């Protein structure tokens, strides 16, 4: 089992980063926020899990142990594959997943492409009692985001396949609604924007 990797980032595109470890480039599947935060030529450490199948060995990486733990819980639910689990974490933070489960809010999981009503309800049922809510996530109105943050979020969404015409108003709405603590974080704003875009236009979800 490969539980973590650390090395120089060779490339970061969409939802994949390639990290050089001991002279070998490892392709790691990550959330778009993680890929966006990665910098080519800089060191990156990820908490990872290796998914083994007959036709492939696929590595999934996360910024925190909490994300990895939630991913493994999600992929233990019938009907939720690794891509769908990664898709959930692209839209919801671990705390938001825990909150949705605690509130019996299966609608939160239906935002992810490939997760229908039955699977969403099964996620809530399967994860009940397995996650602790450690933070509230309700956004409040606040100051404007630092210059360049909105542009970075928009560029990331365009890179993921949405048109600028579709993505721009979503980014603007996200900036308006985000709390002060979130306005300076490209990763958080990207996650919020992905949640607003909805499953019909997602390119990162789907069962696997």
What would you say this structure looks like, in words?
Residues 64-141 are annotated as: Domain II. Residues 72-91, 107-126 form the Helix-hairpin-helix DNA-binding motif class domain. There is one protein chain. With 208 residues, the chain is an alpha+beta fold. The chain is built from eight helices and five strands; from the N terminus they run βββαββααααααα. It has helices spanning 32-37, 65-74, 82-91, 94-102, 117-127, 149-159, 164-177, 186-197, and strands at 4-13, 16-21, 24-29, 43-53, 56-62. Strands 1-2-3-5-4 form a five-stranded mixed barrel. Helix 2 packs across helix 3 and helix 6 (149-159) crosses helix 8. The chain is globular and about 45 Å long. The model is unreliable at 135-147 and 200-208 (pLDDT under 50).
